[in-house]
Amino acid sequence: MLLSDVRLDLGATFAGRQDGAVMPMLKAKFDELGASVTQTLSREFATDDILMQFFAETRFVSQRHNIKVVVPPTDDAAVFRESFRRDYRRRYGHTDPGAQVEVQALHVSAFVRSRKPDLRKLATQGPARGSSHKRRVYLGRAFGWRDMMVHDRASLPPGFSGEGQAIIDEYGSTTLIGPGDHYSIGEHREIRISCVQGAIGAGEAAVRRAVRVAKELSMYPGFAFFN
Hints:
Elements (H helix, E strand, L loop, with lengths): L5 E12 L5 H23 L4 E11 L6 E4 L6 H16 L8 E12 L6 H4 L10 E6 L6 E8 L8 E3 L2 E4 L4 E4 L4 E4 L5 E4 L9 H14 L10
Parallel strand pairs: 6-8
Antiparallel strand pairs: 1-4, 2-3, 2-4, 5-6, 7-10, 8-9, 10-11
C-alpha cells in the first residue's frame, strides 16, 4: 500500500435514458462529482495533478442488473450507447441494437500519484555478518549429505550469480538453492531463482523434494516445519 497511488471514489444516483437530452445533465453531474473529489484531494495532498476516470452503471430499459462502463469523453449519446453495447456484448455474448439504454448511477475515481521510494535504497542490507564458506548440509534421501556453499545475503552485490547447490543466509530467513538451480541477485537485491531439470525432475517433483527435506529436518532440535 505504501507504493500505491492515492485513490478516491465518489458516486451518485442518476436516472435517465441514454439520449441526446440526458448528456448535458450527465456532464453536469460528473462536473459536480469531479469538483468534490478534486477539492478533497487538493486539500489533503496539496496538489492539482489529479487524474479522473468516469463510469456509469448502465442497462437496457426494463432489465434488473446494471453493468459499470467507462464513460467516453464525448457529448455524443450514440458513442456512449455504443460503448455500453460493446461491454454488454463482451460480457454476455450478444446485444440488442434496437433496445433503449438507461443510466442508473454515476461514479468518479480520482487518483493522485504518490512519490515512490527508491527501492535500491530500501534494499540496502546491513553489514555482512561473515564471508562465504562451505557447510555440510543434509538434503534428504534423494541427495543425502552435501558440501554446500553458504553465502551471507548482505555480502552479495547486485549482479552476483551462481548455481546450486547453495544456501543464502540472512537474519530473517534461509534460502535453499537446489542442485542444478541457477540464482542471481537483482538490481534491488532480490534473489532470483531459476529451477531447472534435476536429478528428480522439476515442477511437482521439486516441490515434493522441498517438503520432504523440510519434514526430515523438522526432526532436529531448533527446526520447525509448518504444512
